[in-house]
Fold this sequence. Notes:
By secondary structure, the protein is α/β, with parallel strands linked by helices. It has helices at residues 2-14, 66-80, 82-85, 110-117, 135-141, 161-172, 174-178; strands spanning 18-19, 28-34, 38-45, 48-56, 90-94, 124-128, 155-156. The chain has a single domain, classed as Ribonuclease H-like superfamily/Ribonuclease H (Nucleotidyltransferase, domain 5, 2-Layer Sandwich), CATH 3.30.420. Helix 2 packs parallel to helix 4 (110-117).
Amino acid sequence: MAIEAFNTLKKAVSTTPVLALPNFDIPLVVETDASGTGVGAVLSQAGHPIAIFSKEFCPKLPASSTYIRDLAAITMAVKKWRHYLLGHPFVILTDHQSLWDLMTQVVQTPEQDRYLIRLLGFEYTIQYRPGRENGVADALSRVAGEDAKASLYLLSVPQFSFIIDLKKELATNQEFLAL
């Protein structure tokens, strides 16, 4: 059992996570989170990540309210993945409950107005997701300080489903097995 756990851990540490390619027939999901120091976001589809985003805030944003930081996180992620999102409906998941009715709220500050303008033209819905369920975006938002910069590299490669189907079919084909 210990050897099996060690081998699983060794495989997880030594392999690169694979990102999926988007299928525009299925809705995209943008998960965002803002901490006191930065923003983290994940673009996913059917539970599989397509892209990730993590960025440290400019010096002004950490002093802003949580509402503004989370609104900034949403607009940064949408801007980053504009080429995926424009023209396709998508869902934004945030752990800030007051943002779910963003488009029906009364704009009270110029800062709110500035962020809302950046979302015009996109077809989206915002859904609340409690922070404990927003793990990946939350972890990405915890940007390391100036002293400890961290890098995360991921590779997106196509997955050929026909090869998997071919292998399954050949595994049961008696003529092929005889060869």
